[in-house]
Amino acid sequence: MNLKPVAILLNLLLLTIPASASYAGDKPLQTVIHDEHHGGLDFSLGDSKYSGELTYNKSYMVNFSVNPPAGSSIKVAKAYVYWVWSKKDLEGIYPQFNASLTSSGTAVPLPEGHMYTDTKGFVSRYDYFSGMNTCDLSGKISKSGNYSISLANTDKNGSTFCVQGIGLLLVYEDPKSPIIEYWIGEGCDMLYADYGITPEVATTTTYFKGDINLDNVTDARLITVSPSGGYSSGREARNNLFFNEKTSSIPVLGDIIQLLFGSGKSWENIYQTNETVQVALDEKPVADYLEPAENFASIQDKGDYLLATNAILVLKFKDSESSEKMSS
């Protein structure tokens, strides 16, 4: 029997069928909101700190100070809960918890949102789940003030998990502000360039689809979030962020091409966390590297282990662009 065609077929199947979970970049973040209006966008981790192991009924809380511009209204409010080591004994399971929002001494329960998860994807001990839960707070956060988001483990059967932090996204509308356009990407992609996974494979890419009039852009920001980035291995950070840049560009020569022809941009070792603060939040100015369509950002692990959970692109336009867009 000639095994060569069989081998070729198997290789094609491995290349075309995505893995359900692994250290590779196989769960790219997806745009869940794309919009434009007068206003602004903020992302904060509040006073997030690593929780340690949360057993049944044990709680965790993060405090936030909300200060939108006077005269504005909050259009989008979302909470992101970053968790790891979700298990019962030696089995990985999904965490069970209730969450609430407290303001001015009043606590309100929060509805269950979407859960994004990933694992290392091969059979071994300690293959526990990591992930991010989202919660819609629109209508629950509507004005300036101090807010607290808390949660408690509700599993009486003995499962535990750890919380690395909580993020709060606020998008507000303000008629006195310029037009902004934004893409909000969410998910959970576990990346680790080890166990045969190369940095090129341990790369996840988020696409910000749509056409952009570059002549009318006055500012552009790329906001990314990476729980565990730069810490979990106990070694120095080894990760990359790319914006409109191929992840396999040649060092030095790639920098020269970028300067001459205005291509994308890359940054090394930007995600830094420690034993206390285990969620890395980064913001980069990217206006000089925008393309008129199909912009993208890539997060790459080079051996320190990280999660990619949030990627947000925010553009600000000239007043002339604002009037054109609002009148059209």
Mean pLDDT: 87
Count of alpha and pi helical runs: 3
**Terminal residue distance:** 67 Å
Low-confidence stretches: 1-19, 249-262, 321-328
Described by strand count, sense and barrel closure, the largest sheet is:
11 strands, antiparallel
Shape descriptor reads flat
Report on the architecture of this protein.
- By secondary structure, the chain is mainly beta.
- The protein is built from three helices and 19 strands.
- Strands 1, 2, 4, 5, 8, 9, 11, 12, 14, 17 and 19 form an eleven-stranded antiparallel sheet that branches. It has a four-stranded antiparallel sheet with strand order 3-10-6-7, with no helix packed on it.
- The protein has helices spanning 4-16, 253-261, 319-327; strands spanning 30-44, 53-54, 59-66, 73-88, 91-92, 97-103, 106-109, 115-118, 129-136, 145-153, 160-173, 179-191, 203-211, 217-227, 239-243, 265-268, 279-285, 293-301, 306-317.
- The longest helix is centred in the N-terminal third of the chain and has 13 residues, at 4-16.
- Helix content is 9%, strand content 48%.
Please outline the helices and strands.
Elements: H1 4-16, E1 30-44, E2 53-54, E3 59-66, E4 73-88, E5 91-92, E6 97-103, E7 106-109, E8 115-118, E9 129-136, E10 145-153, E11 160-173, E12 179-191, E13 203-211, E14 217-227, E15 239-243, H2 253-261, E16 265-268, E17 279-285, E18 293-301, E19 306-317, H3 319-327
Antiparallel strand pairs: 1-11, 1-12, 2-11, 3-10, 4-5, 4-9, 4-11, 6-7, 6-10, 8-9, 12-19, 13-18, 14-17, 14-19, 15-16, 15-18
Short description:
The protein has 328 residues and is mainly beta. It contains three helices and 19 strands. Strands 1, 2, 4, 5, 8, 9, 11, 12, 14, 17 and 19 form an eleven-stranded antiparallel β-sheet that branches.
